[in-house]
# Entry
Amino acid sequence: MNIHRRTCLALLALPFAAAAQTEEALRTAIRDAIGDKPVADGGITLRVPSLAENGGQVPLGIVVESPMTLQDHVTAIHVFATRNPTPGVATFRLTPLLARAEVQTRIRLAEDQRLIVLAETSTGRVLRASAELRVGAGGCLS
Amino acid sequence: MSALPSQPRIRIPRSARAGEVIEIRTLIEHPMETGLRHEAGRALPRDMLTRLMVRLNGETLLAADFQNGTATNPYHVFFVRLDKPGHFEFIWTDEKGRQARAEARVAVA
# Structure
């Protein structure tokens, strides 16, 4: 009885432990990227499919509202996949030589999840946007 | 520094009007193997690109640092406004320090 109960508890606890680990990895990755700077929602448009048929090649378009002048431009865009085995996707370092703060790429997603994008500006602001994606076949990450 | 076997492909216009915004597309063949994947019970060894650096007339235009979530055959699109002829250099670097390079010139009329 006792053993059975323990097994059940362990089985119940497993996904929660994994989720907690993922949360911690995400927090660490975000802290490594932007430190403790305050974050404001908005100012970023994400172009992603709501359902990605192939998690191994998910198109992602990021457009940050920015004049891209010497004084006021986006310096970095960080992309995080909240439920991949490791949350880091990519960091883009931008310069005012770019016509606009826009990058398109392809990413991999292991399962249904939320994508978080942070943009840092030369004026010290950090903007955030997120998108929920459903994944048909996972991106073969593990 | 040794060369990567990967073949980069760049799609960029040959010419532009002064002040025109042009689109640049880059693709490089690379497995982007994270080391987390298994095949027949064995872990596939990690083999990742770490960085794409793009320079315009000698100045940094864009740099991308890749982590595990960047897909196989990394593909990137970005936009530049050209006021004078552009010499673009593209350099991909992997975790062993090996590099693949490409370049392109855009005339401005």
Notes: Strands of chain B lie at 8-11, 15-16, 20-28, 38-39, 42-43, 49-56, 59-66, 75-82, 86-94, 99-108. The mean pLDDT of chain B is 95.
